[in-house]
Amino acid sequence: MEPMTTVSPSVEYGLRAIGVWPGTPCAILFKVFSISSMVVFQIFQYRYAIVNFGQEDLMLLMDALSVTFAYTLLLIKMIIFAFNARLLNEIIVRVVMDWEECDISDRNTMSKMAYIVRRFSNVIIFSHTLSVFLYAAGALVKQSGSNQTESRELIVQMELPFEVQSMPIYVAVLITQFLHQSSAAAMVGVLHACGQIDIVRQKLSEITRKNIERDVTEGIIKTSIVQHQRIIAFSKNIETLYSNITLIQFVSNTLVICCLGFLIVIVINRCTGRHDDVDKVRVFYFVMSLEAFVYCFVGEHLSTKSEMIGDAVYESNWYELNSNQNRDILLMIVRSQKHLTLTIGKVADLSLKQFADIVKASASYVSVLHAMY
Fold first, then answer.
1. What SS3 state is found at 19?
2. In the chain, how many domains are there?
3. Neighbours of 123 (CB within 10 A)
4. Which is higher by pLDDT, 142 or 220?
5. N or C terminus of the chain: which is more exposed, having fewer CB within 10 Å?
6. Residue 309 lies in a domain
7. pTM for the full model?
8. If you average pLDDT over residues 283-302, what whole number do you get?
9. Under the GO molecular function aspect, what terms does this record hold (predicted)?
C-alpha cells in the first residue's frame, strides 16, 4: 500500500500542473507553458489597467488592479518554484521518507497532524476556487443581462489585441481565464507545504520527549541528535525556498487588501452595488487575508515548536547520565535555544504580530484612499 503523506492530492495536482512535482513527465514543457501563458495574461491585464487608468470608474480600476496584483504574485511564485524545483523535490522526498521510516506510535502522532494540515490546505484551495466561481458567475450574469455582444464580460479584465464579440472567441477566452484562475487556486495549496515542517517538528518533539524520559541510552541520544539535525536542515530548506516568496507575498497582499478594502467601502457608500459584486469582493478579501495569515501562523508555530526540544530534554533526567552523554544532551539544549524561524525576505520573522501589522497598514491605506475619493 502506498504510504500516506501530509501532501494532499490537490496540492500534488497543482505541483504537477506546473512541472515541479518529483517525477513529473515532460516537466520542462509544463514549466514553460504555465509560465509563458501567465506572462501573456499579465501583459493583457496591465495593458487594461494602463488604458483605464484615467477613467472615472475608480471601482472598476481597483477591481482590475487587485486581480492583476494577485496574478503577478502567482507568476512570481511559479518562477521561483521553477528555478528551485530541485530544492522543492528534496523537501517533498524528505517528507515521504519520514512517513516510510516512522514506526506505528509515531505514525499515530503524524496522522493526527496530517489530518489537520490536509484539511487546512483544502480549505484554502476551496476558498480560492469559490472566489474564482464568484468572479465567473458575475461575468456570466452581467453578460446574460445584456443583449449587446460588443460588451462581453470576462472573468479577468484584460485589454486583448483582438475582439471577443463573436460567441466562439468569447467562450474560448472565458474558459482559458477560468482554467488559469483554477490553477491559481491550486497553487495556493503548494504554499501550505510549509505546514509539513510542523508535522516533522511534532514527530521529533514527541520522539525526543518519549525516549529521553525513559532510560536514555547512548544509541537513543545519537538518534535524537541525528533527527534534530535533520529537522534543522529541513527548516533551512523551507526558509531558502519561501523567504523571497513571503516577501513578495506580503507586499502584494498589502496592495491587494488595500484595493479590495477600498472597493468594499465604495460599494457600501454608494448603496447601489450589486450583491454579487459585494460577495465576490468580500470572498477575495477573505482569501488574500487568509493566505497571509497562514504564512504568519506557520512561522510562529515553527518557532514555538522548535523551542520544545530544549524543554523536553531539560525536563528529562539528563543529570543522571554520564559525562559524555550529558555533554551531548547539553549541546542539544543550547542548539534549541536558537529557535527555528521563517523570515520575510530575511528582514523580519513570520509571526502573528506581522499579520496584525499588515492588517493595520492596509486599514490605514484604505482610510487615506477613502478620504481622497
1. coil
2. 1
3. 14
4. 220
5. N
6. yes
7. 0.69
8. 76
9. odorant binding; olfactory receptor activity
